[in-house]
Amino acid sequence: MRFSATYFHNFRNIQHERREWPQGFNLITGPNGAGKTNFLEGLNLISGWGPLERNTRIASLVRWKDDGREERASLWGRVSGEEDADIFASLSVRCSLKIGEGGTDATTMRGRIPVLSWLSGHASILRGGASNRRALLDRVGALVSPSYAARLHDYRYALRQKTALLRKSYNPAIADRVMIPLGSWLWAAREEITRMIGNALREFADLTPRPVDLSFARGGGGLEDNPATDFRRGLVLNRDRERASRIPLVGPQRDDVRISCGSRDAAVALSRGQSRRTASALILASALVVERRLGRKPILVFDELASELDSEGRSSTIDALMRTGCQIFAASTDPIPAAGVELHRMISGKFL
Ligand SMILES: Nc1ncnc2c1ncn2[C@@H]1O[C@H](COP(=O)(O)OP(=O)(O)O)[C@@H](O)[C@H]1O
Ligand SMILES: [Mg+2]
Hints:
The protein is α+β, with helices and mostly antiparallel strands. The chain has a domain at 145-271: Glutathione S-transferase Yfyf (Class Pi), Chain A, domain 2 (Up-down Bundle), CATH 1.20.1050. Helices cover 41% and strands 24% of the residues. It contains 10 helices and 17 strands. The protein has a 6-stranded antiparallel sheet with strand order 2-1-6-7-8-9. The protein has a 6-stranded mixed sheet with strand order 10-14-15-3-16-17, with helices on both faces. Strands 11-12-13 form a 3-stranded antiparallel sheet. Helix 4 (130-144) packs parallel to helix 9 (272-294), helix 6 (173-200) packs across helix 9 (272-294) and helix 9 (272-294) runs parallel beside helix 10. Magnesium ion binds at residues 36-37, 303.
């Protein structure tokens, strides 16, 4: 799939921008504050993934005026390839999405227009907290399995109920009954996704200095093979600790993916630049998993592509990205001259 054109209006610092996009590698460059990240966030929104930061108020995305803000921002994109469609997002207090003439929801949009984006600093996948690694699994999960996002949503709802019960020192068993089937389904799905990404990672071995292994660690589990039995056992073993801490300690909210190089944790064994390259390899491996499962190539969106990479790191990352054959949108303050990279310069919310 690819975006063949976009038009963003009143979105963040972007006022009116229509742009045609070639298939291939689009590198958006420009000084700090030009609007590069804003543009990529727009792609993220229009394809059903929401704003960059989870708790952003939609109204804050609408362009500021001297005396307040515009009423509404609109994002339009034309996608072509396996499917040709016009997609829209209209933002005021909330975000509403449309494919063609019909309103749609984020889950449907994500399934129809597969976009895999990573906008919050790649090194975070290796060096940041476990939530970054869960976010990668969840992105892949939502793309490859129609029910993943819905189950994750229901699980989180039950988790909030359980937290509320624990805070009031009530028995959380009623929430546990809902969480066990959902949480153990998510464990099995995340395990499978981790295994698929780990296998696909071999295709990008040139980006990692040494072979990298992934293993999935169930939050508060891991003592039994069967996920549901494991979940129940985890709950029994952690019952007193959960009541004392008033925090649910068992389940997908505490999962992690261990990323290791030989016998060491990759975050310790690798330099920052090497971590970034390895993180790029993980995202590319994820894209390959999506492509193998969906039979369509996802559109890849990366922010700050070049930071912390030496020239060899930049060229091998770009080579690996090009090899995917996916359409790519990446941003970087420096133009990276490389064969096949289309440069799009941006200043003050406008493409030159
Ligand atoms: N709602 C908004 N209206 C107008 N400008 C905004 C809005 N939200 C953010 N900005 C501006 O967008 C700019 C940041 O753009 P960004 O895309 O992060 O730049 P970069 O090119 O460095 O990635 C900042 O100058 C910020 O003030
Ligand atoms: Mg930026």
